[in-house]
Write a structure and sequence with these properties.
The protein is mainly alpha-helical. Helices cover 56% and strands 4% of the residues. It is globular, with a radius of gyration of 27 Å. It comes from Hanseniaspora valbyensis NRRL Y-1626.
């Protein structure tokens, strides 16, 4: 791999992008000064292992690092000829169009003139498409994954807009057959696009070729497949995953995992032969697939030189799925066939995630209003599958640790978050989440989250923050389903867990309550759950602790000047409580609000005002807002 000459962050053109960049010079140059690319990436990987304790950075600060990583992507992509689009079939007349088989149902969207892009037109140079069917060397794959994982780490710990020009080199890696690389690439594209949702729809990262590939991924593994003949059986992705990850049951019959192989085997891929001007079928029997590695199957396609390159991306996906479900028998025993089940899970896990992150990417593109209805028509259970998987979180007692659905659940939750931002799908999601069929599962999930936060065991903060963010987006629909009081009661019980220090999760809960507390039934539920007493006592306790331990955050490197000594997550939580406090006293005129306003809470508010150096300006402004409301209400 070609070594790249690093540039330092004190480049004036880079500094001008953000005034805070100069404070990060030492940190960024500690990476960029390393001339060896592998040492550079290795040091980034080490940095990624540390807990991020400061506030999220502005992503612009990290542009110099992202640019160098992007240059590494460009080097690898050029070396292995990865920068390719799905080519059109050579023949393109009406008869050929009618003859085409194995076509993508989304093609008419991405091939329309409305979204045509002259940049896709190839020049006279011969383009090689072998990358669709060629696995990269193992050390190169590992290097790529290390880079992708660091970019994901940054995207999850930074804010502001998308940075497509500093990561567009990743596009070529969507073409490689390695599903973990495909997944990492798709996560980067989806997370970056979600940051610019509704304002960045024309990003190069969302060009029609990327969306075409995403549509192939989404439609290759359906959430449910009906039985069409007596020889085929229906399949349900949620049920299969749930059973696949389950602990063995006591009853032998309960341990049977039925493999939906008839959806994929024997392998049959119909394509339009340009040479013979007709439809032909490429077939492989189950035995061949079992006895061949995935790489061997890809090589077989290349060597035969029969199937046009137009189909290679789709074919690589379908061969991968066939390899997953080509098991030694069509029924595996959860206990006796543990090794084969683990192999199946390890192959299926990244692809299921890939599917749902692709769904999320759809929502962030300029094509969402055309694509989402087609997706729901082709994959009728996609909303339901996302909902069911999302609501199974915190069910670790029912699954084997090595077969955890945790990462898959993160992907379905991300898809629901993106879908909930779209007017065309938000009502469907509200109905999926809060109707009678789902409500019981939602309540049980909230109970499981409460138990985890109470015991401090198996806490999934990433899930908590994302899930409560989704609930906040959907909270306007609580009243439509007459569940407001129940949900508020459950959420308040989570908020008031004694000594819980998962501040990120608690902050997310407080934001939902803040959004709903103006309803009378919400106030009553909040009071009945102990919310009023909690607000007073928790604020008193947290503030006293911070004053008694002013150096608790000593040693944390912020790189920019901060106005508080309290850890970022804790000060954010306290600010959230203060916002909820002010909202309650503003909208509640009943006698119960007086339980908040005794001498102890007023004394606590005064302590915050007197210790600005500890609590900072944000919390101080929240307290001043509370005082202003009290003065206006003349309480």
């Amino acid at each position: 791999m070609a070594e790249l000459r690093p540039y330092k962050v004190n480049n004036p053109s880079k500094d001008s992008e953000n005034e805070n960049t100069k404070f990060y010079t030492g940190l960024l140059n500690s990476f960029l000064d390393l001339e060896d690319d592998h040492e550079f990436v290795s040091k980034l990987k080490d940095y990624q292992q540390r807990e991020w304790v400061r506030a999220p950075d502005d992503i612009i600060i990290w542009i110099p690092v992202l640019d160098r990583l992007n240059a590494l992507f460009a080097c690898i992509a050029e070396k292995h000829h990865l920068n390719i689009n799905i080519p059109d079939l050579k023949e393109n007349n009406d008869n050929t169009s009618l003859s085409r088989t194995n076509s993508n149902v989304y093609d008419h969207i991405f091939d329309s003139n409305e979204f045509s892009d002259d940049s896709d037109v190839e020049d006279d140079m011969e383009v090689l498409y072998d990358a669709f069917l060629t696995l990269l060397p193992k050390d190169t794959e590992t290097f790529i994954l290390d880079i992708i994982n660091f970019i994901l780490f940054l995207l999850e710990n930074t804010t502001k807009t998308s940075v497509d020009s500093s990561i567009d080199g990743i596009l070529g890696f969507l073409n490689v057959p390695n599903m973990k690389i495909k997944l990492g690439c798709m996560k980067v594209l989806a997370l970056d696009a979600s940051r610019g949702l509704k304002t960045y729809a024309y990003s190069r990262l969302l060009e029609k070729d990327v969306m075409k590939k995403s549509s192939i991924i989404v439609s290759s593994l359906l959430c449910s497949t009906p039985s069409n003949t007596e020889e085929t059986t229906s399949s349900d992705l949620f049920e299969f995953l749930n059973k696949l990850s389950s602990n063995p049951f006591d009853l032998p019959k309960g341990n049977e995992l039925i493999i939906p192989e008839n959806n994929f085997l024997p392998f049959s891929f119909e394509y339009y032969s340009e040479e013979n001007d007709c439809s032909e079928i490429f077939k492989l029997n189950k035995e061949t697939i079992i006895n061949s590695s995935y790489n061997d199957l890809l090589l077989l396609v290349k060597q035969q030189k029969l199937i046009p390159e137009h189909y290679w991306f789709k074919l690589s996906i379908e061969l991968y799925l066939a390899k997953i479900f080509a098991t030694s028998k069509n029924k595996l025993n959860l206990k006796d066939d543990a090794v084969e089940i683990k192999t199946l899970f390890d192959l299926l896990n990244p692809f299921v995630q890939l599917k749902f992150y692709s769904v999320g990417l759809f929502c962030c593109s300029n094509y969402f209003d055309a694509v989402i209805p087609i997706m729901c028509e082709v994959d009728k259970s996609v909303f339901d599958c996302c909902r069911r998987l999302t609501l199974t979180a915190y069910s670790s007692e029912n699954e084997r640790e090595e077969l955890s659905l945790k990462e898959i659940i993160h992907s379905t939750l991300f898809a629901l978050e993106c879908l909930s931002e779209l007017p065309i799908s938000v009502d469907d999601i509200n109905e999926q989440m809060f109707d009678q069929n789902s409500y019981g599962y939602l309540v049980m999930l909230l109970d499981r989250i409460k138990i985890a936060l109470t015991t401090g065991k198996n806490i999934d903060t990433k899930y908590n923050v994302q899930f409560f963010s989704l609930l906040k987006t959907l909270s306007y629909g609580f009243s439509d389903f007459s569940i407001t009081s129940d949900i508020i009661y459950k959420l308040t019980k989570i908020l008031i867990i004694p000594d819980c220090e998962d501040y990120a999760a608690l902050l997310s809960v407080s934001k939902i309550l803040d959004a709903c507390i103006d309803l009378e039934e919400s106030k009553t539920a909040f009071e009945n759950a102990g919310g009023y007493t909690f607000l007073k006592n928790r604020l008193n306790k947290e503030i006293d602790f911070c004053i008694d331990n002013p150096n608790i955050n000593a040693g944390v490197e912020y790189y920019t000047k901060v106005s508080h000594t309290v850890p970022f997550k804790q000060i954010s939580f306290l600010s959230g409580l203060a916002s909820l406090f002010s909202k309650i006293i503003e909208v509640d005129s009943s006698d119960r609000v007086n339980t908040l306003l005794d001498s102890s809470i007023l004394n606590t508010l005064n302590k915050i005002l007197l210790n600005r150096n500890i609590f900072g300006l944000t919390l101080l402004s929240k307290v001043l807002n509370i005082i202003q409301i009290l003065l206006n209400k003349d309480i």
